[in-house]
């Protein structure tokens, strides 16, 4: 089974504001783009992934991620993260209603294709399934089998909301790269310790990251 991944990405200048204590506003957009590029590149290299759709209105991000092979879907609802994900899933299923769809965060710079494949293979056993983030509070991936709606409920505390919605939590070990999203300086240091993709490595090397 091959999945279509839907990856949401805010305009770069507005993304990852919680990193402002670690990364200056001038450098943050470039770092966020690097996160997304490494996430998309790893996803495209995963054997369980058929294609990737990025929902964004950022022109630069759209060009760079399309160059990696992603399909760019404009954020027509412009009503936040979950509306963007629902819209992206609807767009990709309009032409291929039989495909399984998974929402994946754009801030997984340490993502490894083999670990993503393990998560998607496990998710295929359920109508809807999700993977909690490294803090076990949020969600980094939400999957929906064919004929099942995605019903995203991302945001603070999304692990509890996805579980309450009936999605099965995937209790997998050794998939740290799929869990380690980056919202704070501590998250960034944790991702760097796992080993990030080449674009994030270059962008981070230019930054004075405390504790790194």
Helix proportion: 25-40%
Q: How many domain units? A: 1
- Principal-axes shape call: globular
Give the oligomeric state of the chains in this entry, treating copies of one chain as homo and distinct chains as hetero: single chain
Put simply, the count of helices is 8
Please report the first level of CATH classification, the CATH class: Alpha Beta
Taking all Cα atoms into account, the compactness measure Rg is 16 Å
Strand content: 15-25%
Strand order of the largest sheet: 3-2-1-4-6-5-7
End-to-end C-alpha gap: 40 Å
**Mean residue pLDDT:** 95
Low-confidence runs of at least 5 consecutive residues:
none
- Give the topology string: H per helix, E per strand: EHEHEHEHEEHEHHH
Q: How does CATH name the architecture?
A: Alpha-Beta Complex
Main beta sheet strand tally, sense and closure: 7 strands, mixed
The third-level CATH topology is Spore Coat Polysaccharide Biosynthesis Protein SpsA, Chain A
Question: What is the CATH H-level superfamily?
Answer: Spore Coat Polysaccharide Biosynthesis Protein SpsA, Chain A
Total number of beta strands: 7
């Amino acid at each position: 089974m091959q999945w279509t991944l839907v990856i949401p990405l805010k305009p770069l200048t507005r993304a990852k504001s919680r990193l402002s204590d670690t990364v200056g506003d001038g450098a943050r957009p470039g770092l966020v783009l690097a996160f997304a590029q490494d996430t998309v590149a790893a996803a495209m290299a995963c054997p369980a992934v058929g294609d990737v759709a990025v929902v964004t209105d950022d022109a630069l991000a759209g060009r760079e991620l399309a160059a990696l092979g992603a399909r760019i879907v404009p954020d027509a609802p412009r009503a936040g993260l979950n509306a963007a994900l629902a819209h992206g899933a609807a767009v990709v299923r309009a032409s291929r209603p039989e495909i399984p769809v998974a929402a994946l965060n754009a801030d997984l710079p340490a993502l490894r294709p083999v670990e993503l494949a393990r998560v998607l293979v496990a998710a295929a056993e359920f109508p809807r399934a999700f993977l909690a983030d490294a803090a076990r509070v949020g969600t980094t991936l939400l999957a929906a089998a064919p004929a099942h709606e995605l019903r995203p409920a991302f945001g603070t505390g999304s692990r509890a909301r996805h579980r309450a919605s009936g999605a099965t939590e995937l209790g997998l070990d050794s998939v740290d790269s799929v869990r380690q999203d980056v919202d704070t300086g501590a998250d960034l240091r944790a991702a760097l310790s796992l080993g990030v993709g080449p674009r994030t490595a270059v962008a981070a090397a230019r930054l004075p990251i405390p504790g790194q």
